[in-house]
Amino acid sequence: MSMRIAVALAATIGAGVVMSSAAQARPEMVGLHADNYSPGTIVVKTNERRLYLIVDSGHAMRYPVGVGKSGKQWAGTTRIDGKYTNPAWSPPAEVKRDKPNMPNVIPGGSPHNPMGVAAMTLAGGEYAIHGTNMPGSVGGFVSYGCIRMLNTDITDLYQRVSVGTTVVVTR
Fold first, then answer.
1. pTM of the predicted protein model
2. Which residues belong to the active site?
3. Residues 135-161: tens digit of each pLDDT
4. Averaged confidence pLDDT in the chain
5. HEC string of the chain?
């Protein structure tokens, strides 16, 4: 009996540690030589799997991100053209082709929705910077080209930027 209690207690504490570390994820202020970017610009460095929100010419808020897997990466400059909380998600044609059993629409707020708690769509394509229902994928080469963030981090970034914000994606 005491062994069962000990195992249950260890599992509960372990789950609490896992849950609290994800829930407490926050961006960190870092030094960054950013003379080429205006304050407020988002810079995604694909190879680093990091997103930077430029604060001034020497500082940025840094967030871990998941980026495009091999063959799905892109680079360029675009802008945020929409901001959505708890967005519904329809898989793009390429995703549907690879995963034909996927539903045509996954409602916002569903635990199966890969967009997480918020999304900011990017002009000129089917890409977005968004939260995720798979926090373990953040930090990897995992997407079809979208930028994945922890839900706590997308919530933070969402509040700091507006529609029209410039987004620069580099490899």
1. 0.84
2. 130, 146
3. 999 999 999 999 999 999 999 999 999
4. 88
5. CHHHHHHHHHHHHHHHHHHHHHHCCCCEEEECCCCCCCCCCEEEEHHHCEEEEEEECCEEEEEECEEECCCCCCCEEEEEEEEEECCCECCCHHHHHHCCCCCCCECCCCCCCCCCCEEEEECCCCCEEECCCCHHHCCCEEECCCEECCHHHHHHHHHHCCCCCEEEEEC
